[in-house]
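Quick note —
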Amino acid sequence: MKCYFIVNPNSRGGKGLRLWNRARAYMTKRGIEYEIFFTDAPGDAAFIAKTLTEAVQDEPVRVFVIGDDGTLNEVLNGLKHLSEVTLGFISTAPVEGCARSLHLSANPGKLLKAVSTGGSPARIEAMDYGVLTCENGEIIRRFAGSSGIGFDAAINGRMNRFLNEGPRFLRSRRIAAFRECLKELVTSRPVRGYVILDGERRVEFNNLMFVSVHIHPYERSFRFGSYADPKDGMLEICVVNCRNRLRLIPLLLRSRFRGLADCSRVRLFQCREAHVHFDRPCIVHTDGETIRSQTDLEFRCVRQQLNLFR
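Predicted structure written out below.
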C-alpha cells in the first residue's frame, strides 16, 4: 500500500527536511511505494490532506506527517473520511505536545519499520480528538492535543510571528519563548468569565488568565493537563485564575516538570463538552496555531475516531 507524506521542510529550522531525507532513504532501500508533498505556506498541509482524502471510498489511506504539532493540526483539519485514514506522526519536536504524550520516536525508520510490508505488525491505536466551535459555528477547528484562550494562546501567537518575521539570527524557539513570555507578562490583564461543563455545571471566575483544554497532557513543553488521557472520551479543562500575573512565572516553571493539580490558583475539570466565556475578546489557539480573538468558545471531545500509528 502506498504511503503519502506531508512534510513541512522548514519545521524547527530545517529539521523537517532532514527527517524526510532519512525516511526517504529507508523507503528507497526497502522498495516502499510513496508519494511526497512539501508545504510552503500556512494552509498548505490542510489543502493537501483534503485533496488526498476527499475521494476516499472504503479504501484505507496511510498519511504520514513530518513537522510539529502545528503541521499535524493543519492535516487533521484537512482530512476527509477520517475513519478510513491512518496517520503517522514523525515529530520535529519529540519532547513537546502529542509526541511527548505518546512517547513517539523521533527516528523515522522505527515508525516505518512497523508499517512497511514485511516489518513487525503495525500498532494502530484509536485516539480522541477535540473540536472547537466559535462565532456561531462559522469557525470549526479540530485539535489533536490542546486548545485554549488567553495568556497561553497569546504567547503562541507572539512566538509564531517572531519565528516568521524576526531577525533570522534570533529565530531560536528558546529565545522566542522567553522574549514573548516576558512581553505578554507585561501587557496581559486578568478577565472575568465562566466555564459551563457538560451543559450543567457553571463555574465563574474573576481573574482568568487562561483556559487550556486538553486531549493530551502537554501544550508544547508545558504540562497543563495533569490527568488528560487521549482514549477516555473526556476533555481536561485547566483554568488559571490569578489576579497577580507575576504569579504565573512559578506556575509556568512548575508545569515544565510536573502537573498543576495541587496549585491553589489552578482549577482542573473533566467533561465531555465545555462552554468557555471571557468578558473581553482574547486570542485562541488549537495545537499552537492561533485564530482571531473570541469571547465564547464551545469544546467537545470526539472519542477514539483518530487512527494513529504508534
